[in-house]
Give the backbone structure.
Amino acid sequence: MLPPQRLCQASGGHFSTAQNSLVAAIAATLFQKTWENVPSTPRTLWKQFNPGTVDVGQDVGVNGFLKAIRRLSANLVFATVDTGTGAGVQLMVRAKDNDDPKGLLIDQLRAIPLNSPITARGLVTKVQFLDPSMSPRLNPRLQMEQHRDRLLYRVDLDLTHIEALNRMPQHIVVKKSTEYPAPFPPGFPAQSRHLQLRFSDRLHNRILFRDSVANRLRELLRAPGLCEIETPLLFKSTPEGAREFLVPSRRHGHAYALPQSPQQFKQILMASGFRGYYQFARCFRDEDLRADRQPEFTQVDLEMAFATGSDVQELVEKAITKLQNWLNVEWVLHYHDRDLSPFPRNEMARVDKEKTMGWHSIKKSFPHLRYDHAMKKYGTDKPDLRIPFHIRRVEHVLPEHFIRMITNLEKPMVEAFVVKSELHLEYHKPMDDGPPTMLVFDPSMPLDGLSSLDHDGVKKLQCNGPGLEDFAHLEKGDALFFQAREDKPFQGEGSTAMGTLRKLVYDLAVQKRFVQASRELLWLWVTHFPMFTPDTKPGEGQQGLTGLKATHHPFTAPMTPKDFALMATDPLQALADHYDLVVNGVEIGGGSRRIHLADMQKHVLRNILGMPADGIKRFHHLLEALRAGCPPHAGFALGLDRLVAVLSYADSVRDVMAFPKSMKGQDPMTQSPGPVSDAMLAPYHMKLVPSEGTASEETASEDDQGGKDLA
């Protein structure tokens, strides 16, 4: 509410002197009443009492949210307070009779809406460890100074004072079943993200879990000597591949660009004499969104001077191994409605221990798999090692008429896999190379249900020859999937049609509960990627004009001297010293050894990619750093959002981010991006112009500037 003087001014002077005096008097009265209801903030709000050190009879203060009130009689009331520290506090008010002053305290307590923030004082009547094993009396070896304030205690207070610091609105109803992202009611919509974070235990715990993972990673990266260094967020546009977010500047014709990654800065740091670097970097890419992708995200970025790719892989693998094994010390996984989510281990007394489990300990080094082998066996460069069936090449044992039946391609290769009967699902989806064909093994049918292959084809398929072991011991109900594709080498593709089908069949089987998906996290390295791939959209992305693009980014070094020579004669055959870290079908991160010689880097940009002179000029700062005696170096970027989502068994990275964007790149809570006006754009030498075509009603409703573009 405006103060009285401001309220009179706001009237615009349209009242008479007497009317203004009356308005001022009314406003002063209302303002005074409002101000009287504002609680005085205690000086000790932040510092909570430590339940592990308080004694019975001690006067203590507590701050938190009022969670429940139980009235046992007119003169006896209990209430619970959520302190957010793992300590459960119960308040008790007992009035001896109707004239007891504590009766007023009961009325005051009952008048406070549930879930309101409160501050209270009282005398300690009881301190109880809900998990006796965590008591310092029974477990004197416990490092209480590190864990005491996070243990789950039950503390009873005989209430002497309580005050509401704010009041929960009555129209916001919180039920036990309230969860995100259920529709409202009973759940809270995305526009009320603050309520989702506050009242969803799973979401709240995942954010706390993310903090634990980040802190542990910092410790593990500092141990080998890496130094945390921040790099700028206001950069400039450089053709690295992904579409960038531009930030206008007041300098005419110039704009900043938000970094896709700190790639160039971290290489320059290696040229600056730093032995090792890391940071939790914010990255921005204006790309199509999906469950594991956001326009802004966090990656754990690192770079090491005088290092090879193997050195980096060893460091990252040790960090991931120690991190996952450490999780079982601080956290458990809790089953809730068939879902798993992390739960603080020191609060296990709040849940059924039978519904908890830990993470599998990593005891072996991660396997390494070449890119081309991964594509042949799994149909993807991000293999999920939990899927029990593999892809086999089988056209050499199939009759010609069957191949012609499933594809129109000339001289195709045919791949197949066997799905055991318990995973059998119907699936039909058109493919560019023809639809997948499914045959079901059934001994009661002619040729066991494989008559499309004729006698000779069935015999050859079940001969138990090399690569055909899966087909030698078929059982009733087993399904055979066949798919044809062009017989050509892989050139950087992320997956094949057969690889997509394989994962889809398995995911559907898990979804339909035909099979229980393994909860084990199976890590592996994928290496030996092609250095360059055909560019179907020359001039875009990396802005090359030769029809080639760098498979990952143009700063990756060739794997061997042979690959260096192939860069000049046959670039598509050159292999990159690049490595991806994959777990359960999700790419968690990737890295490479970098080109550290300026002439080689310039050759890649100009001669192999065909980048125009103005594009190369944008990398002048990097080329100069390399030219100034930059040492060999290698690095890695670990997607923190994806890592936390995988470790916490979340369905989407949005479930491990406090304020994620929607699939449209919008923030539902703050309604960003917001509309702009010509007045706002004028300092940046920009203005709004009518867009081509008519904006949709949906766009217009989401953006008041619908129908206009920036120029």
Residues 205-362+525-646 form a domain with the BirA Bifunctional Protein; domain 2 fold (CATH 3.30.930.10). The CA atoms of residues 4 and 27 lie 5 Å apart. The longest strand covers residues 59-73.
